[in-house]
């Protein structure tokens, strides 16, 4: 340890985890999760945007609104290189997270190619039109919505869930299950399969980022809850400001019953909240207001009381423990456990209802 660290930083109180130790634990969790994820991705979701679909059989008479929506899906996904490079830079010091972002990028790249194929094989856009559109899109660069890693991680949880929902609702239309009168009799088995295949990827992405946020919630509850509050306060879909016909896309998506503000509230925010042990947006805001910050030790590690009432930390702890069991099973399967097994470490800051701390 460099000598200045000893002078500038008071030591972590006995029995608590230092930030450095917390960061190490989160990093180990990400690395184990990334390894598990990659193996599973290759085993179960190794599809190809050209060869996994019978493109020639795509419906050539889809309603124009459907084409507008597919085109918008393509427009967002084709920023995959920007999404990936920006996020990799942000987390480049983390093995688990930076390697994951490359894997994630390779999956997002397939989504862009599959949606482009869908636009082409709809028969309603010429190759020249697609090339010009792509040129216009690529003249702009996507930038990170937030400057730091934790906010971007939280943002991605909501964004992946919202994207999954968009695709599932498109699948429903293509399967002829929409209740909108304009889509009665519309069917396209190829489009339904594309939307479903990509939605499964988005669900896997959602889960990866969700597990990451849970680890942060567990070890850094206060900072993470504040990040969640900030992100939902200004959430919009990625690249909304870059896509030239965004307004028309958004209105079409809304009128088609695919995605709108109510869907975000009910099927994105509420679902993600439940998965993070947060009861509601109101409860989150109330809890954060109540939290009295007492600067305590180790540069920005705060000891607070109210924070633990803001969310169901018991649920989050159970989820983080389950994640570690999953990682340990994977490590045993490979033999990593013989060398350096990943272990779950309890956060001692968490108040335990049964056990009264003797040194309080
Ligand atoms: Fe995607
Ligand atoms: Fe995704």
Automatic annotation (TrEMBL):
Pfam families: FA_desaturase_2. Its cofactor is Fe(2+). SUPFAM superfamilies: Ferritin-like (SSF47240). Keywords: Fatty acid biosynthesis, Fatty acid metabolism, Iron, Lipid biosynthesis, Lipid metabolism, Metal-binding, Oxidoreductase. One of its GO terms (molecular function) is metal ion binding. InterPro entries: Fatty_acid_desaturase-2, Ferritin-like_SF, RNR-like. GO terms for biological process: fatty acid biosynthetic process. Homodimer. Belongs to the fatty acid desaturase type 2 family. This is Fatty acid desaturase. It comes from Deinococcus koreensis.
């Amino acid at each position: 340890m460099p000598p200045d660290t000893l002078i500038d930083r008071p030591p972590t109180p006995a029995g608590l985890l230092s930030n450095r130790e917390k960061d190490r634990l989160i990093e180990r969790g990400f690395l184990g999760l990334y390894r598990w994820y990659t193996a599973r991705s290759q085993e179960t979701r190794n599809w190809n945007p050209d060869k996994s679909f019978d493109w020639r059989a795509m419906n050539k008479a889809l309603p124009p609104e459907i084409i507008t929506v597919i085109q918008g899906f393509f427009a967002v996904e084709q920023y995959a290189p920007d999404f990936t490079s920006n996020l990799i830079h942000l987390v480049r010091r983390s093995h688990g997270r930076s390697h994951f972002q490359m894997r994630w990028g390779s999956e997002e790249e397939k989504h862009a190619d599959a949606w482009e194929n869908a636009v082409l094989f709809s028969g309603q856009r010429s190759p020249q039109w697609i090339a010009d559109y792509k040129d216009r899109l690529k003249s702009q660069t996507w930038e990170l919505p937030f400057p730091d890693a934790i906010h971007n991680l939280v943002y991605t949880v909501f964004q992946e869930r919202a994207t999954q929902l968009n695709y599932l609702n498109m699948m429903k239309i293509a399967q002829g299950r929409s209740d909108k009168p304009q889509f009665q009799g519309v069917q396209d088995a190829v489009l339904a399969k594309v939307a479903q295949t990509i939605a499964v990827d988005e669900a896997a992405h959602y889960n990866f980022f969700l597990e990451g946020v849970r680890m942060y919630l567990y070890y850094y509850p206060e900072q993470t809850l504040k990040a969640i509050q900030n992100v939902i306060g200004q959430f919009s879909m990625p690249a909304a400001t870059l896509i030239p016909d965004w307004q028309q896309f958004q209105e079409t998506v809304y009128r088609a019953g695919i995605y709108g503000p109510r869907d975000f509230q009910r099927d994105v925010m509420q679902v993600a909240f439940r998965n993070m042990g947060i009861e509601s947006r109101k409860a989150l805001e109330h809890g954060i207001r109540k939290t009295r910050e007492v600067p305590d030790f180790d540069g920005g590690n705060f000891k607070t009381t109210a924070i633990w009432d803001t969310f169901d930390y018991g649920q989050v702890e159970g989820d983080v423990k389950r994640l570690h069991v999953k990682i340990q099973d994977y490590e045993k399967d490979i033999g990593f456990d013989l060398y350096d097994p990943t272990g779950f470490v309890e956060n001692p800051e968490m108040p335990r209802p049964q056990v009264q701390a003797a040194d309080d």
